[in-house]
Amino acid sequence: MIARLMNANKVYDSPAGKFTALQTCQVDMHAGELLLIIGPSGSGKTTLLSLLGCLINPTEGILEIDGRQTNHLSAKEMAKLRLNTIGFVFQQFNLLAALSAEGNISFPLQMQGLGKAEIKARTRDALDKVNMLEHRKKLPKQLSGGQQQRIAIARALVTDPKIILCDEPTASLDKESVYLVMEELRFLARSGKALAVVTHDPRLAKYADRTIEINNGKVTQL
Ligand SMILES: Nc1ncnc2c1ncn2[C@@H]1O[C@H](COP(=O)(O)OP(=O)(O)OP(=O)(O)O)[C@@H](O)[C@H]1O
Q: How many CB atoms sit inside 10 A of residue 152's CB?
């Protein structure tokens, strides 16, 4: 088990009052598994992904990442845990417009303070894994949506994280790119990573090893 959320609640405090976005939530993530998270708009999917990604803390309950409870970690320790253990893939790719494909991929390695030669080798390896080596010098705007998402996947995997979290990774893609991106994500799970993919798209069910559904902040195992 690489990530475990136990009896977790998330209550948002806003000017409109308190809102419980997740209730007594139990979720496990395992190495080698692609976990699909489905549910209607506003049900709590992004909140769950943000918890698993150590972007927010549960209001109650326990989050364990790679055997470590996160409750008492400082913001700096959480940031380090994220950088070294978790990769993120978003709907809108979130690539830096001024950097080439390889510049975007090497960015997290520079944050980790690795040496030049290692950064070069690992960036090349990640580009190769997503079949984008020939496009490495291009800027994001010179790539299709599917190609940009594959660069974003390469950026997520270049630090060799144990966990990869994807928020609607196919929502901005055409049918052919959806297939390529999901095949890529499934390949990553097969290579031993733990993946969680949030989606509205029922067509992605066939790529999942396991599916959970959220309704009004409550998780059901399907
Ligand atoms: N920072 C916040 N403060 C207050 N309420 C919030 C906050 N973030 C989310 N919520 C509320 O929590 C609920 C769950 O939100 P969340 O973004 O997790 O849903 P979702 O399932 O990802 O929705 P969608 O599919 O539309 O992206 C929603 O009702 C939302 O309005």
A: 27
